């Protein structure tokens, strides 16, 4: 059974300064190699680092973005690639993840950007606020890239000129200049929904989804700009529906604050459940002196897209306290609760895997050991279909024992007492006389519900249990799916002097390269070529330095594409290139839409 859209199990698939010497500047390929294991564990999706070119391409983690349209295909800020790889391997990761039944959720940083030059038109010339001139590279040269910016796009500006508040941090923000999206943050009405920064962000996210084929998003630092911006961008980029994963990082222990933020996005985006995490961390550090019966009341109330969690890269590396040791047995209790309450639980890479020497930095994806208890919790969540059952708090009258149920799917109990057993009779949604097995392995003997559907739970010290109907077994068989990625050819995209040389409008006489895909051997690739103004187009798909695998010519318009399909003979990198057929045609913007199946596993990378 596949997980409901709002009950996915997500892995944060990186840690701060993540690195693997086998895949230098290529974390995306490491994750592609890891994808079959994650699918076999039962994960629904992976949260990956920010993909846009940072202020410093190679060392930085992507949280101070410079060029949103550079996913690792332009030679700027020190390299073509980002810390995590080129655009080619990013797109390949998405295709490989999809082939393994995994969704991909990149980190999106839209509160701020960095790396700008000093803006001579800015009235701020004495502090960091002057570095607000952004002129990215484009195909036609330096400074011709899409989404240039100047001081008017940031706080402060004439439309938003007042002291620091929620939407206007100080000019000395260490993460770079903060965007001014106007809107409600300037109390100047809906007309400002089309301010330059907001229009550009909206256009970028739409382009990004079409280019990459990603499935959802983690929005960074959302308390720094108005929530209606996220709602606006998601509506325009994803359409009016709500059934996709999206979560915002709003660091607060206030339930009402995160609830109000999610409400303001019209539930297009949820929040990480920091209030619940604070309580879970308190339990983990309590030494047994914590009222676990109080945990359910700590979860936020808006749970349409809430994401319960125990640790992430910020908590693990000191940005947000407290840091939790995954080998602390009470952390296992915290995860058992986070996996059971409403929402899409997020696990952390360094909790799932033993990310320490000798495995950290240099291990093969298949060799790094995982913590069996956490693998088992994912198995239980998925095989027992936790989130298809209603959520019940069955017992919370003890400071040490808490019992939760996903209606007629699973009963989860935790005992925070390090020395004593605790027990309780509970009502359940299971049928009377149903045999139940503890799939955590803590309790050896099966139990059954009585004639009224009640069950007796007797929990050993400092453990959790997961009770479900007997006889559930087996591994996961992920449903492979195809990937759709669209390559736009325009003069303000790509870089003519970069290693990859992608971009530029289509012209006559010479093929220009739109990009590359990585299909599985023997699979069908579907191609559609669109153009703004009707044109005669020549298109080719080929392996580098080889004859075309696909070649076609004909008319293309904005609504009726030039289309074809081909079965590729071998797995690998296939170049997409096009030109205009008519000798007198003016350069034209083309869109090459691809639909293909990536390999689920590969020995080619």
Radius of gyration: 26 Å
If you average the pLDDT, what whole number results? 94
How would a textbook summarize the main sheet? 7 strands, parallel
In whole angstroms, how far apart are the ends?
A: 31 Å
Structural class: alpha+beta
- Tell me the name of the CATH homologous superfamily of the largest domain: Glycosidases
Q: Kindly state the percentage of residues in helix.
A: 10-25%
Multimeric status of the protein: single chain
Compute the number of structural domains: 3
Indicate the low-confidence ranges by residue numbers: none
CATH class of the largest domain: Alpha Beta
Task: Give a structural overview.
There is one protein chain. The protein has 605 residues and is an alpha+beta fold. The chain has three domains: 10-49 and 84-111 and 193-367, Glycosidases (TIM Barrel), CATH 3.20.20.80; 388-469, Immunoglobulin-like, CATH 2.60.40.1180; 483-596, Jelly Rolls, CATH 2.60.120.380. The protein is built from ten helices and 27 strands. It has helices at residues 27-41, 87-99, 196-212, 227-238, 255-264, 274-284, 313-316, 329-340, 349-352, 372-383; strands spanning 10-12, 45-48, 53-54, 65-67, 103-108, 112-113, 177-178, 217-219, 246-248, 270-271, 346-348, 391-395, 401-406, 410-415, 422-427, 435-438, 447-448, 454-459, 463-469, 483-489, 512-517, 524-531, 535-542, 548-556, 562-567, 574-580, 590-596. The strands form seven sheets. It has a seven-stranded parallel β-sheet. The protein has a six-stranded antiparallel β-sheet with strand order 12-13-14-19-16-17. A four-stranded antiparallel β-sheet has the order 20-27-22-25.
């Amino acid at each position: 059974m596949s997980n409901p859209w709002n009950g996915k199990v997500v892995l944060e698939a990186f840690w701060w300064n993540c690195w693997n010497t086998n895949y230098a500047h290529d974390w995306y390929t490491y994750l592609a190699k890891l994808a079959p294991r994650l699918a076999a564990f039962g994960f629904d999706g992976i949260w990956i680092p920010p993909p846009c070119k940072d202020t410093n391409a190679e060392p930085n983690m992507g949280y101070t973005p410079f060029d949103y349209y550079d996913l690792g295909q332009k030679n700027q800020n020190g390299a073509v690639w980002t810390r995590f790889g080129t655009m080619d391997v990013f797109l390949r990761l998405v295709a490989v993840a999809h082939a393994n039944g995994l969704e991909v959720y990149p980190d999106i940083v839209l509160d701020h950007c960095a790396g700008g030059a000093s803006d001579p038109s800015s009235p701020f010339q004495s502090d960091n606020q002057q570095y607000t001139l952004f002129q990215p590279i484009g195909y036609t040269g330096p400074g011709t890239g899409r989404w240039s910016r100047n001081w008017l796009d940031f706080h402060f500006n004439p439309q938003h000129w007042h002291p620091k508040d929620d939407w206007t941090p100080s000019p000395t923000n260490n993460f770079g200049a903060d965007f001014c999206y106007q809107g409600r943050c300037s109390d100047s009405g809906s007309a400002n929904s089309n301010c330059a920064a907001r229009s550009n962000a909206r256009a970028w996210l739409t382009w990004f989804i079409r280019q990459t084929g990603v499935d959802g998003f983690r929005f960074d630092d959302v308390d720094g700009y108005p929530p209606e911006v996220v709602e606006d961008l998601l509506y325009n980029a994803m359409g009016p529906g709500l059934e996709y994963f999206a979560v915002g990082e709003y660091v607060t222990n206030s339930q009402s604050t995160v609830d109000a933020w999610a409400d303001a996005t019209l539930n297009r985006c949820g929040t990480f459940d920091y209030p619940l995490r604070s309580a879970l961390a308190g339990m983990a550090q309590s030494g047994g002196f914590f009222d676990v019966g109080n945990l359910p009341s700590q979860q936020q109330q808006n749970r349409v897209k809430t994401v319960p969690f125990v640790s992430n890269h910020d908590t693990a590396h000191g940005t947000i306290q407290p840091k939790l040791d995954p080998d602390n047995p009470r952390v296992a209790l915290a995860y058992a609760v986070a996996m059971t309450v409403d929402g899409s639980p997020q696990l952390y890479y360094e909790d799932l895997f033993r990310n320490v020497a000798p495995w950290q930095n240099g291990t093969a994806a298949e060799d790094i050991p995982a913590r069996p208890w956490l693998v088992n919790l994912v198995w239980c969540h998925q095989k027992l279909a936790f989130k298809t059952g209603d959520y019940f708090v069955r017992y919370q009258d003890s400071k040490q024992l808490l019992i939760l149920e996903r209606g007629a799917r699973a009963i989860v109990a935790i005992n925070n007492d390090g020395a004593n057993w605790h027990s309780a009779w509970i009502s359940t949604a299971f049928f009377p006389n149903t045999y139940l097995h503890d799939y955590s392995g803590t309790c050896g003997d099966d139990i059954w519900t009585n004639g009224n559907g009640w069950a007796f739970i007797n929990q050993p010290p400092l453990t959790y249990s997961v009770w479900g109907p007997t006889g559930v077994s087996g591994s996961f068989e992920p449903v492979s799916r195809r990937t759709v990625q669209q390559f736009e050819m325009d003069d303000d995209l790509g870089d003519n002097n970069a290693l990859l040389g992608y971009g530029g409008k289509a012209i006559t006489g010479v093929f220009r390269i739109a990009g590359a895909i990585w299909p599985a051997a023997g699979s069908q690739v579907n191609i559609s070529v669109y153009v703004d103004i009707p044109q005669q187009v020549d298109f080719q798909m080929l392996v580098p330095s080889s004859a075309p695998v696909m070649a076609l010519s004909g008319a293309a318009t904005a609504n009726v594409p030039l289309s074809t399909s081909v079965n590729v003979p071998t797995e690998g990198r296939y170049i997409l290139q096009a030109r205009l057929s008519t000798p007198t045609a003016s350069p034209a913007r083309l869109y090459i839409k691809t639909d293909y199946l990536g390999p689920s596993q590969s020995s080619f990378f």
